[in-house]
Design goal:
Helix content: 10-25%
Shape: globular
Oligomer: single chain
Structural class: alpha+beta
Length: about 375
């Protein structure tokens, strides 16, 4: 038998287990940690504190946990989950801002009353309600209270025409030939109320006049638009007092622009004013167009201007009334109309409008207002 040369105590001795067999490696001197059952499907392993109880966790690095099952790590808070509500809130805020801005724009458009600043050439006044904008009935409802009937008396007789209220205290624009030579002027509002008016200023070269009601206040006023924006084919409405029928409304389109129309400068010159009821009756509303005279003789004293042509029905008494666009803005002052039976040399009553009328562009009026107010017209 070979003897071992190993010195005694060089290798550790391990105890035997009942039957004398040596166990290797030796069993631990403590009971291994067991999982803790907290409920069906859930297992919790002891934390580091349990290992510390086991001899301070000595051996194999001294952490006390080597070789032991470790607790499942808790999931780190998801940054995505934190960011997601923030991103959602930001998206909602942006959408709200966009919707809010669009809503403000729509509300601004819907509450727009049709008037603009003087920089656009529009003089504020009564305009068409948004709900009926673009309709003849809407224009008529909004503008009829601003159109008046004018009755002028002169040495030649009486005449009837129309006018447009432009200030709440009773300034009214009309044609020069409606009031030229008048010794008295009476004005009837759409309500039927009658005022006496003074002639403030006239401009025979442009066939325009300005009169002022005595003691008037709080009147509805018309909006003077911009005739440079008028286009052929635009729908228009005419309001006046043909044949003394106050507040008559007709409609049509703009047929042409810049037509040369010639009218008498002097109301007593061969023809008369407005409807001309005291000057032989009939269609005393003379003018020249295309080298021909209509509605009588214009006389020797005449003036020519560039007119808006319209097929809206105009008749004697419409003179001085309004030609209106569908936004309720005055674009012209009606001044002349053609009647098939009223050419030069013709006699008898007028056959009425045949859809060939003319109006002084409103920009001509606006450029002349200061002169008319000063009474410095020609």
């Amino acid at each position: 038998m070979t003897e071992s040369q190993r010195p005694s105590g060089e290798y550790p001795m391990y105890p035997s287990y009942g039957n004398g067999d040596v166990a290797y490696p030796p069993p631990p001197s403590y009971q291994p940690a067991q999982p803790v059952s907290t409920g069906p499907g859930t297992t919790v392993w002891p934390g580091p504190g349990a290992a510390d109880a086991y001899n301070g966790g000595a051996g194999h690095g001294g952490d006390g946990l080597h070789g032991l099952p470790q607790p499942a790590p808790e999931p780190a808070p998801s940054r995505r989950r934190v960011r997601r509500p923030v991103a959602l809130l930001a998206a909602v805020a942006i959408a709200a801002a966009i919707v809010g801005g669009g809503t403000a724009t729509v509300i601004g458009q819907l509450t727009d009353n049709g008037t603009t600043s003087n920089g656009s050439g529009v003089v504020p006044g009564t305009t068409v309600a948004q709900s009926s904008k673009g309709t003849v009935s809407g224009v008529a409802s909004a503008l009829s209270p601003t159109i008046v009937e004018i009755g002028a008396t002169s040495n030649a007789g009486e005449s009837t025409g129309s006018g447009v209220v432009i200030t709440s205290d009773g300034e009214i624009v009309t044609n020069n030939h409606v009031v030229a030579g008048a010794t008295s002027v009476k004005v009837t509002l759409s309500t039927g109320r009658t005022y006496t008016a003074d002639i403030v200023g006239t401009d025979a070269d442009k066939d325009l006049a300005l009169i002022k009601l005595q003691g008037a206040s709080g009147l509805k006023t018309a909006t003077l638009g911009d005739s440079s924006k008028v286009a052929v084919g635009d729908q228009v409405v005419a309001i006046g007092s043909p044949e003394g029928l106050t507040g008559t409304v007709t409609s049509g389109i703009v047929s042409a622009l810049d037509r040369d129309v010639t009218v008498a400068k002097d109301g007593d010159s061969g023809s008369g004013q407005g409807q001309g009821q005291g000057q032989g009756g009939g269609q005393q509303w003379p003018f020249e167009f295309g080298g021909q005279q209509f509605n009588g003789e214009t006389g020797d004293s005449t003036t020519t201007y560039k007119a808006i042509q319209t097929d809206a029905s105009l008749n004697p008494g419409n003179s001085g009334g309004a030609l209106i666009n569908m936004d309720g803005e005055i674009i012209g002052i009606n001044s002349a109309m053609y009647s098939a039976s009223s050419s030069s040399g013709s006699t008898g009553s007028s056959a009425g409008s045949v859809g060939l009328g003319f109006a002084i562009p409103v920009n001509t009026l606006k450029a002349d207002l200061d002169t008319l107010r000063a009474g410095d017209g020609s």
